[in-house]
Each structure stands twice: as C-alpha cells, then as structure tokens.
What does this fold into?
Amino acid sequence: MRLTYIFNLSAVALTIAARSVVAQESNVATSDVFRHYADHVVKIQVVETGSAAKATIGSGFFVTADGEIVTNYHVVSKLINTPDRYRAEMIDVGGAAHSVRILGVDVVDDLALLATETRPHSFFSLAPVKVAQGARLYSLGHPEDLGLSIVEGTYNGYLPHARQPRLHFTGALNPGMSGGPTIAEDGRVVGINVATEGEEISFLVPVERAIALEQRVSSLGTQPAATTLAQVGQQLRDYQDAYLRDMFTGNVKTVALGPFHVPTEPAPYFRCWADASRRKEVPYESVTHRCSTDDYVFITGDQSSGVITLDHELISTKTLNATRFYSLYTGIFRRDNTPSGEEEQVTSWRCTTQNVRNGDTPMRAVLCLRRYRKLGALYDAVLKVAVLGHTDVGLVSTLSLSGVTFENVQRLSQRYLEHIS
It folds into this structure.
C-alpha cells in the first residue's frame, strides 16, 4: 500500500479530558452539518508568481478567532521549498482571496499552521476526541476545485501498519480536499484529510497532532520563527534518527531462501510479500521476498522520506552450466534499482563497490547514494548485495532507504550485511 496525497497539482480551546463520539444512528441530516460548519472551511491555493496561475490547491479550516488555519504540509510545500517562486492565499466562503503566511509545520505528520489577517465569524476548537468504530463522520473540502463539498463516511480506527498515527476513514476523499477537516455531527474535529487509496479508502491525521502543532507554535509567542527548509530538514533528521535507532538490532527476524538466510520485517510497520516464478520454458527459478513500509513523508514533488524496502531474490537452476549461470546472475545483480529524481532536488547517484564477508559468506556489495540539495545532510541510499561462491544458486538482496543521514546509511548497511548468511 502506498498512500496518495489528495491535492491537485493542476491547478484553541483545549479540553483536558477526551470527549466521546458514540457510533449510533442520528437524526442529524448531512445538509444540517454542512450549513452549520461550511463557513469554518476555506480553500488554500499556492500560486506561481511568474504566471499568476494556481500550482496547487487544497483545503484548510479556522481553528482560532485570530484567523489561524490548519492545513496539510503538502498543500503548501511548494511555497516552503521555493519561496521565491510561489505565494499562498486563502479563498473564503465568499470567494475573496486573502494572503497567508506559514506559522509552523510538522512535515512528519503532514500538517501546517497558517496565519491570515481575516477574523472568522466562527472556527473549530480543537480538543482530543475518542471515537467508536463505525461512528458517522463528515469530511469537508474542495474536491478537484469544484467548490466546497461534504462527504459522509465512517470511522474505522487507526491503521495498524503505519509508523505515524493515521485514521482510516471510509469515505470518498478526492484531490483538493487535503487539509480539510473530518468532523462529528456536533462539529468536533476528529482528523485532518490527508490521503486516499480510492474506492472510499481514505486517511486522516488525528486531531491530536494538529493540537500539538498549535501548542508548539503558541509557545513561541506572538512572533513565531519563520518556517524554513532548514527546520523541515531538522524535523526529518530527528524523525529518521528515532525510527532507525534500533533497526536490525537485537532479535532480528530472518527468513530462509534456499541455502541462505536474510532479514525480514524489521519493524511492526513493515509489510512483507513473497512469490515464486517456476516456468518450464525458463532454465532457472526465481523466488522473491519483499518488505516495505506502508507510509512515507511527503517533501515535494517526487521527493519523499521515510521509505524503506528490503528486496530478496533467490535464483537457482538445474540446467544451466556454471558459465551460463554466472552470466545470468551477473545480469540480475547489475540491474539498476536506483529511483529517478528531479535535478533541482537531488544530486546524481554515486556508487562504490567492494567485496565483503559475513563469517563464511562472501558477498559483492554495491552502495549508491544521492544527496538532497535543499535539505542538507540527508541522502537516499541503495545497498545491493550478491552472495558469491555457488555455481547453481545465488541471492541478490537490496536495501533501499530514503531521506536518511550518511551516518545512518553506514550503520544500517553494516547491520544489514551482518544478517545475510
């Protein structure tokens, strides 16, 4: 599963105790919910200053009487990554445009807090909410720039395989609704629209994460620090340090592929699949085992952080001689697994190759890296390993990392090699 962020590239009053939303049938009509809360929700658009054309649209909602607005980080990411080319504005329910500035972001949870000079007549007061599975919820936003809309759906709890907390909302969110609120019928915000997989499988950032961002910005006083790429980079470095700290340490899970053992499911938020190809017309067999993280952190465009994949492929033959098998094995090992990227965002890949050994297991290893140009000290990395010394069976194993420090690339590569045998 890969989440699709729901934005269009074309175009606090806090309570200490959590409140409860009960999953029971209600006599409240969807039209009543829309009428009561529509004026809390706005459209956010990022404009390319050279052409005055919309580059991104999303949604947001007022959370204070001073005009502070919650939206998604990915809605305003162009402004943060290239502030000299873009500006952001809020379009209110009457269609009037107002300039906005960024007070703070949480790139890991995909949230941003904006400021505007507008003083709203009403706003959502954010507070912790406890929701029963099956509760009826209502999502508001601007799907495909078609105007403010409301979507009715149900709450289905937290995703079990997500590194960051995400809520499963059974409702048809669409591009342009990113950053809008999903609420209970009484107006309590349950989550912030963030992503969808289609077919009414949608995802929300829990309201508690927006509360934490609001509190952090509030603690800075009347002049919060300007949000810069340096701050975004620091958030990403802190995040990857936390989730990579203990990976491939302790009691590491392994799986047997032929005569080899390889690591699998290094953390609960990984999901793993396996398959095999055994065809009579092909002179070899292939068994694959793949593990990957479900979620990722959006940075900008095709750039993301927090993606980790483990790919293992066992190749074996009963018919090829040693020379032909070596040629086949070498060709598989030399396949290019490095992803593409915009030159503006990342450098070219640079690779180094060497022979390594884990105990009695000799291996050929290639490590490729590219650096993030704007975020500093973050890299994408691909480590590919081929086990040597056999004439009829081989293993190619690949570890891919996105948005990590060089120190963590070194640390995880070493740990990874120690668990291939």
Q: What stands out?
A: The chain has two domains: 4-225, 238-417. DSSP finds six helices and 26 strands in the chain. Confidence is low (pLDDT under 50) at residues 8-24.
